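Hi W.,

Here's what went into the run:
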Amino acid sequence: MATASIITANDVLTLPELALDGGQTLRDVKVAYETYGTLAADRGNAVLICHATTGDQHVASTNPRTGRPGWWDRMVGPGKPIDTSRFFVICANVLGGCMGSTGPSSLAPDGQPYGMRFPVITIRDMVRAQVALLDALGIERLHTIAGGSMGGMQALSLASSWPERAARVLVIAATGAMGAQNIAFQEVGRQAIMADPDWQGGAYYGTGKAPDAGLAVARMAAHITYLSETSLTEKFGRRLQDRTAKSFGFDADFQVESYLRHQGLSFTERFDANSYLYITRAMSYFDLAEEHQGRLADSFAGSPARFCVVSFDSDWLYPTAVSRRLVHALSAAGAPVSFVELSAPFGHDSFLLDVPALDRVVAGFLGQ
Amino acid sequence: MATASIITANDVLTLPELALDGGQTLRDVKVAYETYGTLAADRGNAVLICHATTGDQHVASTNPRTGRPGWWDRMVGPGKPIDTSRFFVICANVLGGCMGSTGPSSLAPDGQPYGMRFPVITIRDMVRAQVALLDALGIERLHTIAGGSMGGMQALSLASSWPERAARVLVIAATGAMGAQNIAFQEVGRQAIMADPDWQGGAYYGTGKAPDAGLAVARMAAHITYLSETSLTEKFGRRLQDRTAKSFGFDADFQVESYLRHQGLSFTERFDANSYLYITRAMSYFDLAEEHQGRLADSFAGSPARFCVVSFDSDWLYPTAVSRRLVHALSAAGAPVSFVELSAPFGHDSFLLDVPALDRVVAGFLGQ
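Here's what came out:
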């Protein structure tokens, strides 16, 4: 309730068209977004927050599908590190998503859902839709663009392709290029979905069936990668779930099994399987250096922005080494960049969880 | 051809019955095994090699299903680290497997395949079947029991429950208890199989359908965990497969995607999905300390064996830390134990691959 009241807008922008990296042009593109706080007269206090793979625009408002607080409620609000009494905060559902922005579950111009007719998009296409949103809001230059995980990739993409649009770029637990292991995990998730007969080549809308089983498996596999081995051990270890002895069967004997099954199942209630395909595809395609003959530093040549890069010591999905590579590239490009590896036990998900040191880094960077 | 010729037996032992940890008794239990070399007159030169999750008895002979060399061909043979001109080497397909030993695809006493009527087994049950094989072969005490991964767990289980049956215990890339992250990955694999409608509650034998799609996804996810991030990066990086540009589609654009799909698909040609369920279940149940109030050292109290424990620095599935815990327990139990962490880039699969340092450790330990 307290969180919902701080929203100043919950709206949908419609773009007549959006040209995509893949060469196609999407028509009638919706961008669902929320804003918090008040845009200053000089329009200099806007902060764009980009969400991660399965996030959404409800950064600090109650999520209408789950009834749970916004995914970064702890970070965004009055008096919080991203202080909505000071900043005008914007968060949009990504292109390809399923929370109001145009994606594979949206209706195509022929009145039928896109399904797999939806074009493959890139991280930059997601950013492109958000740049159009900034144009519509009359924001020429962001005070800060910020994001964790895929959100950090969007921040980097904006810094690279629209360098004048943000004064500060905050990149948390992300990378400048998706690595082989992550591409592999993403492929497993997609194969799990596409192996489900209820996927029906992506044309499951309106059939009363959806590839929930495949999507749940995809989520389970991904979820393991978001947590550290240490946090799984501390949280669950080998403890049994609601029993005193092993069942000698295939029930969820262990708490970690029960937890994972719940994660998989509940995910299917809030996420569209085709969106998962398209968003993970965009991530696996992400490589900022690709257009610069492999020289990541050239992606940021002449950038006027200040950067802050954060990694977590327990994150094995986007480990500190990839952040360090990014920082080296930014330094080589002459960009002012601060870098911190935070100690937190939660693995990749640390950026979403209670890590007070992250709060201080975020507040400090935005206050500069 | 050269490898096949060193086999001295390729046989199947039938046990009238086998009492299991879960309380049930299996009747008419087959144990498919191979032997290499000659058993000495004093029967003191027998080496039992235990295979890993998806391995089989074809340790150094051509695999009849794949036509490929045995899975430890590089380690076992005349003049090799496990020298068949000196040792009598035995390798049996595990109980629950699908290469000739009794498992869920075997016929139950009613003439129909067990399917999910097969009892849930443990690592110790697998060892129990192999102890019966040793009895049948007249081998009272092994010179060495050796294994990597699940094979190492079997070696530990024998050392704990039948301490007089082996003079030397060689444990490579294994653990004394399955950790939460590994239980989680195993659960994902099982859920992928059971989510496949062609699984049909496990009763797919003879229906012309099998849960190949689910089994392939399970294998893909597991396969990632067998490799290191470094080896995936070196082997594949972000290189494209048979194309010069991204397809902007869902084909296997990247080599690592194509490789994984192949791994998944080819696995279904040689492995039974229900066996995968039962074997991973046995692994997740594995905890040597469970019967000793959590004190791992007590599992080896009074053991007369010498131990050698090997880990690999790039193995994140069974990292050095878990081997170290095992070594501490063995030391606390007063067992002579040598421990080495080898540097190898291949991740968990290092125990199967070209790591000359491992050859020297194995040869050295068997020569003691």
